[in-house]
Write a structure and sequence with these properties.
With 272 residues, the chain is mainly alpha-helical. Helix content is 78%, strand content 0%. The chain has 2 domains: 100 residues; 163 residues, Leucine-rich Repeat Variant (Alpha Horseshoe), CATH 1.25.10.10.
């Protein structure tokens, strides 16, 4: 049995989360809505004894509304991040999001062409990818809502956010991860992916490219597609070869640094 302080702490966290749900629902201030959505995203990320759930059923439709109708990109980003966090290891929340129209809202956000929206789009891609983990029903819903096409379009995004180019790199990584999850979850999704002429070439570029966050998910996506596509199989082989070469170069560089450090240490010892 938990201590009185632990129970009180859990109650306080639950009350705080419920207060932010109310704030997001009722406030007319965009700034206060942003604060509430950001806080709910942080609550949703908690695991173990710190994770409380009673507030989640009420929060989900409000967060979906914020994704759809939020008055700022920051609000949309926080709301999408909250939805993405709510799905991690929680199939009940995934079902709630799907049944509440969350897939359509997230696909719509991912497809936005607003400037500087890459961070929002990355969170939408992450949420769609999380929903599709070992979930054929959710993956099918994503495909039916145009999510596969929209995710593949995100892979082609070449606009860099002024001052924040990492947002575009993260968009590529999250979209590649979502594509991999969709391909693993449902055969019809794999067919939709392979039906797009840009899919395998772009995944191949990311799997061999300089964006470290995108390389592994792009390779995983190619692996899921390889059984049905000789083109994807060859792209995976090329990516694996590049990966092995990169590891060898890193090992050589590390070895070189260690030898150089050893020589420096030796000179320092002689000079003492």
């Amino acid at each position: 049995m938990g201590s009185a302080s632990t129970v009180q702490s859990c109650c306080t966290r639950e009350q705080d989360a419920e207060a932010f749900v109310t704030q997001l629902r009722t406030s007319s201030s965009t700034w206060l809505q942003e604060e509430a959505a950001c806080s709910l995203a942080d609550f949703a990320r908690q695991r173990g004894p710190d994770r409380t759930k009673d507030w989640m059923p009420d929060a989900i439709p409000i967060l979906i509304k914020a994704v759809t109708n939020g008055q700022s990109l920051e609000l949309k980003e926080h709301a999408a991040r909250a939805l993405a966090n709510l799905t991690v290891g929680d199939t009940v929340n995934s079902v709630r999001i799907v049944n509440s129209g969350g897939v359509q809202a997230l696909v719509q956000l991912l497809s936005t062409e607003l400037e500087d929206a890459q961070a929002c789009r990355a969170q939408a891609a992450r949420a769609l990818g999380n929903l599709s983990v070992q979930n054929q029903v959710a993956a099918t819903r994503v495909s039916e809502a145009g999510g596969v096409r929209t995710l593949l379009t995100a892979l082609l995004e070449d606009r860099l956010s002024p001052g924040q180019p990492e947002d575009t790199l993260m968009l590529h990584a999250e979209a590649a991860c979502a594509i991999a999850n969709l391909a693993a979850a449902d055969e019809s999704c794999r067919k939709d992916i392979l039906g797009n002429a840009t899919a395998v070439p772009r995944l191949s570029m990311l799997a061999q490219g300089e964006n470290p966050a995108a390389r592994a998910p792009a390779r995983r996506a190619l692996k899921e597609l390889a059984e049905q596509s000789p083109f994807a199989k060859q792209a995976l082989s090329d990516a694996d070869g590049k990966h092995e070469l990169r590891l060898k170069l890193q090992a050589l560089q590390q070895d070189g640094r260690q030898k150089l450090y050893g020589r420096v240490q030796s000179r320092e010892q002689r000079s003492v």
